[in-house]
Amino acid sequence: MKKVFAEIVNCFVFTIVVVLLTSCKSGKEGKDEKPEYKLVWSDEFTNTGAPDSAYWNFEKGFVRNQEHQWYQEENAFCQDGLLIIEARVDNRENPLYREGDDQWRHSRKKIEYTSSSVNTARKFEFQYGRVEVKARIPVGGGSWPAIWTLGRSMQWPSNGEIDIMEYYRIKGVPHILANAAWGTEQQHHAKWNTKTIPFSYFTGKDPDWADQFHVWRMDWDETAIKLYLDDELLNNIPLDSTINGSLGEFKNPFKQPHYLLLNLAIGGTNGGEPDPDAFPMRYEIDYVRVYQKEKDSFRPGEIWPDNRGMHINAHGGGILLHEGTYYWFGEHKGRNSNSAFVGVTCYSSDDLYNWKYEGVALPVDENPESPITKGCVLERPKVIYNRKTNQFVMYFHLELKGKGYEAAQAGVAVSDHPAGPYRLVRNGRVNPGVWPLNMTDEQKNATAKLSDFAEWWTPEWRSAVNDGLFVRRDLEGGQMSRDMTLYVDDDGKGYHIYSSEENLTLQIAELTDDYLNHSGRYIRVEPGGHNEAPTIFKKDGKYFMITSGCTGWAPNAARLLVADELMGEWQLYPNPCRGEGEELTFHSQSTYILPAPGKKDTFIFMADRWTPKDPINGRYVWLPIQFENGLPVLRWVDEWRLN
User: Fold this and answer.
1) How many other C-beta atoms lie within 10 A of the C-beta of residue 509?
2) Which of 44, 195, 308, 504 is 20 to 30 A removed from 289 (C-alpha atoms)?
3) Which domains does the chain have, with CATH numbers?
4) What secondary structure does DSSP assign to 193-245, as a single string?
């Protein structure tokens, strides 16, 4: 829609003669008839009244391009299976008017026209797929209808704009346009790939074209954006050419989620002079449908859309298999913060490739006194099923709001259903007043205190850490619990494995039979080794842990620990990663290890690729675990399948 300061590139008159497929309104047939695609989101506008607020937001006021209309909710309504956006003549005071102000929003005394603009920002956002919109557009003087998308990150134009359809006048001549825009070195100055087709091209073949409904389509993948009208290709935009300038950090704005917009503008920089006889002016939309191709492989590090077309938001997660269905639990990340403002999300799948959003399994609490109040830190949730109690039990790393990372608690929540809702039953540190099983009497009775050391990381300090310096400090209140996982052994016994002692030592704590508490039996693993992000699996009677070093949000080399007994002695081995990127675990950090379905002794390494400046955009790295000389090995693969 934006053409202010625009640089039009590759603009030409479309003259190739092809057969144009037009369609009259004929009901809602065919929305699932896409062999390559699966419908992930749609609005058929079958209700009467206002558009569904679960799907659509409204823009308000004078918004862009010096357009004549004031956007308001009243001008968009559903009727007879259509969304109708109606532009109307008006004559009322402009509440933004400021005498002597030259800014166009404030210089107008009157609102002369009203219309509506709706969008799906924060309600439905998608990356890649097929969009189909069936609509009848107004073509009267001054009309500027559009079907378009905007990227959710960065300011325009560095967020990227795709105009699936625009209709307006160029030098007084009506045109239909199919465009994309991205950022340059100048603020608010876009680079455009635009195709402009004179409206006469369509009416020359069908004089009644404007009276009919037509289908606009976008096919968008990793390589190109293709824009169609009634199956005729109007523009093919290769994504290797759509790179932002420096203001857009040289990123490609079409490799991020976008949201949809539908609007009817009047006049402005492109709409032309409004024709008084054209009002009220109606833009009628029959349906909006978004399809995506079903996945049949893992593609580590790429956007992973759920059934709604939105990138899966389940970070630091783990998987529960229950009655043939996989449930993926993880942290919901926002755009600007790693704190918890939503809670723990849950997705389900029967093939591990395609995931259905089940909702928020454990929501944060609006009560500021709650341990899980909005704004706390809630990380690495894992769920296990207790066959004795028939309860699903969730553990997670909890930091209290406003306390940084000093709380270092474990939170415990339960549910009667795998996808939730879960309710918090307790939170706190681990095994207060109890010594580890593998701590000697000499270590328990040592007198070294933290205050004895003016500096950390000295040889003397390291020795004291190995001898239980922080265990003794935290004995009364309980051991710290940060990055964590859960494990259920072959005998049904549950274990909580977590980074403790200021992230310097791993601990493995046995759970009670109902999994709701710690039994008091626990051990220290690799004291002073500075391990976090523990993941665990068992093969051929041996236990394997793949962990991470502690480098904040930055990736580092993975570590491997092996034991014959879970509560026994663990031996440290070198980094299990092999190949390019091995020193940074392929730019990711371990979160969980999942036994592969239907394949004995086959396992999937799950990791997160953190993006702390844009947490919601973090990616998932799932890799097959291979074995060499009896030890697990990880190698990068761009794409792989379970078979």
Assistant:
1) 26
2) 195
3) 38-292 (2.60.120.200), 312-428 (2.115.10.20)
4) EEEEEEHHHHHTT-TTGGGSBEEEEEEE-SSEEEEEETTEEEEEEEGGG----
What pTM does this model have? 0.76
The residue written with tokens 């992230």 in the block is 503
Distance between CA atoms of 528 and 466, rounded to whole angstroms?
Answer: 6
| CA-closest candidate to residue 70, choices 122, 101, 108 | 108
| One-letter-per-residue 3-state SS of 79-129 | ECCEEEEEEEEEEEECCCCCCCCCCHHHHCCEEEEEECEEECCCCCEECCE
Measured CA to CA, the distance from residue 67 to residue 108 in angstroms comes to 11
**88 pairs with which residues across the strands?**
114
Cα 619 from Cα 609, distance rounded (Å): 5
Cβ–Cβ under 8 Å, residues 151 and 256: yes
As a whole number of angstroms, the distance between CA 37 and CA 158 comes to: 29
Cis peptide before 418 (omega within 30 of 0): no
Neighbours of 327 (CB within 10 A): 25
Residue type, 206: D
* Cα diameter, the chain: 96
> Could you give the CA distance from residue 400 to residue 406 in angstroms, rounded to a whole number?
8
The whole-number mean pLDDT for each consecutive block of 10 residues of the chain, a chain of 643 residues, reads 39 32 42 72 96 96 96 98 98 96 96 98 91 98 97 95 97 96 96 98 97 98 96 98 96 94 95 94 98 92 86 96 97 91 97 95 97 98 98 98 96 98 98 98 96 95 97 98 98 98 98 98 97 97 97 96 98 97 98 89 95 91 97 97 90
Query: Residue type for 87, please?
Result: A
- CA separation for the pair 544, 633 (Å, rounded): 11
